[in-house]
Design goal:
- The protein is α/β, with parallel strands linked by helices.
- The chain has three domains: 176 residues, 3-Layer(aba) Sandwich (Glutaconate Coenzyme A-transferase), CATH 3.40.1080; 236 residues, Acetyl-CoA hydrolase/transferase C-terminal domain (Glutaconate Coenzyme A-transferase), CATH 3.40.1080.20; 181 residues, Aminopeptidase.
- Helices cover 27% and strands 24% of the residues.
- It is built from 22 helices and 35 strands.
- It has an eight-stranded mixed β-sheet with strand order 28-29-30-31-32-33-35-34, with helices on both faces.
- A hairpin with a 4-residue loop joins strand 23 and strand 24.
- Helix 17 packs across helix 19.
- It is elongated and about 105 Å long.
- The termini are far apart.
- The relative contact order is 0.07.
Length: 630
């Protein structure tokens, strides 16, 4: 459509268009990278325009003017989210932050609780039917546009046309400003790549092929995306698309084929990235831009099976409370979409949420996992909403856990130099027992090499990993679930009580070198249950004593042999040359496991009828021969 022929009376230069804004007006401005920069500049530079209240989701262009002497006397900025560009202004009290869930912002306009006189938008040129596209800024822009008394649109040929809710006809626009300029770009800042890579290794363990992802605002979630290149058929239902998605789209990792709700489409509301990304989504039917009250509605989110919400935080306390929008009394970002997606993912079939954050801030000087949130910090996400927290030191599973377990889960993924302090602070608050042993100060990233899984003939998968302090309660449940005979074979007497002190000493004695304990777990709904436990401990020079216990309904499935292989591998790395074991003579199954694995083992009878088995490790050549014979 030729605008000059169709509606020449609507076309104005930017300086004349903004003259239509009356003093005292309430002005809505399109979001983030879709904001109409030239209209904003023209409005600010026209000093006759006074006493304007501005509502915007994410603001960029105003940062060029907000520190000018008379700006705050002419403009009152009310932002639903504080962008990087506007943080200094927020610190100085030059903007007003409106805390609100993203899904609920459109209703503030629809209900006229926030009245709007003018909407300043940026759109693509119209098609032959007269429809322009809001392009990369659909989120709350549609509602802002529909509820404003007057609409002024900057028509920019660089704005991509996107499919979905973002179409507006030129007949519904009051004034049009034809002005071409590059869109705002939001390029990721450099981050500590070592920390990002370590966090990504844990995130990878949690995301299965075919999952549908939501990725929240922030540089860390964006960077973590780049490490998902080994996944298959991921789907996307998210508020914002960034450049982190682009490699996964180009490599075919994101296909949306496994999505059960709106399959084959990326459901989103906003795009903030590079010109390359904007060109990629131009007229691309894979991208389905919907309004924020649809994309962020927890009930809509929950329609996606296996939806995983990935977002970040500024700090988290030992009970699981999360702060995302302020550093103490200083507002830093916003509530945004985190709570909407955390609650939606919780209602999703097999869905859950992940909060990822570095363990420290300020160059390692302060812990982001804290005994209590900073004074003045806002609780954006409650302790009842959180599922999983990940740092570069591991994974903490909080869903369904008590305060005691949460403390142990979070302390063990804190930076090693803060773990003892966190435990001591938790004791002062009576979150944990006074005799609680703090987690090891070791950096346990090397334990990732000891994780594995075994596929059983039944179709179940048993996951194996080293025992951690947070497993104390699960280990207790495991021991109490065993039959008397199984307990007798393991401990040589009919043990009735598995005390907290005993279990705490068990994991506290594990140094993961001279002593090691491996647990085997199976999935039970949203949690994992221990079904097997194997360990070795130093007995004498170059010899370790080994022991196992397997839950009755998993006996005879090869779990003992599998754990013996794992423990031998670890023991060899730590310079052991043999295992020894003490076994009751009637425990035929365990004896067969040892004799099959170590055909050259030496067996002698003890004084109380038990057998003492000495099992030298084979040399590499012998091990190869043994493997070949098997």
């Amino acid at each position: 459509m030729d605008l000059n022929k169709y509606c020449p009376e609507k076309i104005l230069p930017p300086e004349k268009a903004v003259k239509k804004i009356k003093n005292g007006s309430r002005v809505f401005i399109g979001t983030g990278c879709g904001e109409p920069q030239q209209l904003i500049r023209s409005m600010v530079e026209d000093e006759s325009i006074q006493d304007i209240v501005v509502y915007q989701m994410l603001s960029s262009t105003f940062s060029q003017y907000v520190h000018e002497p008379n700006f705050t006397t002419r403009f009152s900025l009310k932002l639903f989210f504080i962008s990087l560009h506007m943080r200094q202004a927020a610190f100085e009290g030059k903007i007003d932050y409106i805390p609100a869930y993203l899904s609920q912002i459109p209703e503030l306009f629809n209900s006229r609780q926030i009245g709007l006189d003018v909407a300043l938008l940026q759109v693509s040129p119209p098609d032959r039917f007269g429809y322009c596209s809001l392009g990369i800024s659909v989120d709350i822009t549609v509602s802002g546009m529909k509820n404003a008394s007057m609409i002024i649109a900057q028509v920019n040929p660089r704005m991509p046309r996107t499919w979905g809710d973002g179409f507006v006809h030129v007949d519904d626009i009051d004034y049009l400003v034809k002005y071409e300029e590059p869109l705002v770009e939001a390029l990721p800042e450099a981050k500590n790549q070592e920390i990002v890579e370590r966090i990504s290794k844990y995130i990878n363990q949690l995301i299965d092929d075919g999952s549908t992802l939501q990725v929240g605002f922030g540089h860390l979630p964006n960077y973590l995306l780049t490490y998902l290149d080994g996944k298959k058929d991921l789907g996307i239902h998210t508020q914002v698309i960034t450049d982190g998605f682009l490699p996964l789209l180009e490599q075919g990792v994101i296909t949306n084929k496994q999505k059960n709700y709106l399959p084959n489409r990326i459901v989103t509301s906003l795009c903030m990235g590079s010109e390359q990304l904007y060109k990629f989504m131009d007229n691309n039917p894979m991208f389905y831009f919907r309004v924020a009250d649809f994309v962020n509605d927890p009930n809509i989110i929950a329609k996606n099976d296996h939806l995983i919400s990935l977002s970040s935080a500024l700090e988290i306390d030992l009970t699981g409370q999360i702060c995302t929008d302020s550093k103490g009394y200083i507002f830093y970002s916003g509530i945004g979409d985190q709570v909407d997606f955390i609650r939606g993912s919780k209602m999703s079939r097999e869905g859950f949420s992940i909060i990822a954050l570095p363990s420290t801030a300020q160059g390692g000087k302060v812990s982001r996992i804290v005994p209590h949130l900073s004074e003045g910090a806002g609780v954006a996400t409650t302790r009842g909403d959180v599922d999983i927290v990940v740092t570069e030191y591991g994974i903490a599973e909080l869903h369904g856990k008590g305060i005691y377990q949460r403390v142990m889960e979070l302390a063990q993924i804190a930076h090693p130099k803060f773990r003892e302090w966190l435990i001591e602070e938790a004791k002062k608050r009576h979150y944990i027992f006074g005799d609680q042993i703090p987690p090891s100060k070791q950096d346990l990233m090397f334990l990732e090499n000891y994780k594995s899984h075994l596929e059983l003939e039944s179709g179940k998968t048993v996951e194996f990993r080293p025992l951690l302090p947070s497993d104390e309660f699960a280990t207790r449940n495991f021991y109490y679930s065993l039959q008397e005979s199984t307990v007798f074979y393991r401990f040589f007497y009919r043990r009735k009580i598995f005390s907290r002190e005993m279990l705490q000493k068990q994991w506290a004695s594990v140094d993961y070198h001279q002593n090691m304990t491996i647990i085997g777990m199976v999935q039970r709904g949203k949690h994992k249950e221990i079904v097997a436990l194997g360990s070795y401990g130093s007995a004498e020079k170059n010899v370790a004593e080994v022991a196992f216990v397997v839950k009755e309904d998993y006996q005879g499935m090869g779990l003992g042999s599998y754990m013996l292989d794992l423990l031998e591998k670890i023991a060899k790395e730590n310079k052991y040359k043999a295992f020894t074991a003490t076994v009751l003579s009637e425990n035929k199954a365990m004896i067969r496991v040892f004799e099959k694995h170590y055909p050259n083992c030496k067996v002698k009878h003890g004084y109380s009828g038990e057998l003492e088995i000495y099992m030298p490790f084979d040399s590499e050549d012998d091990q190869g021969n043994k493997t070949g014979k098997a």
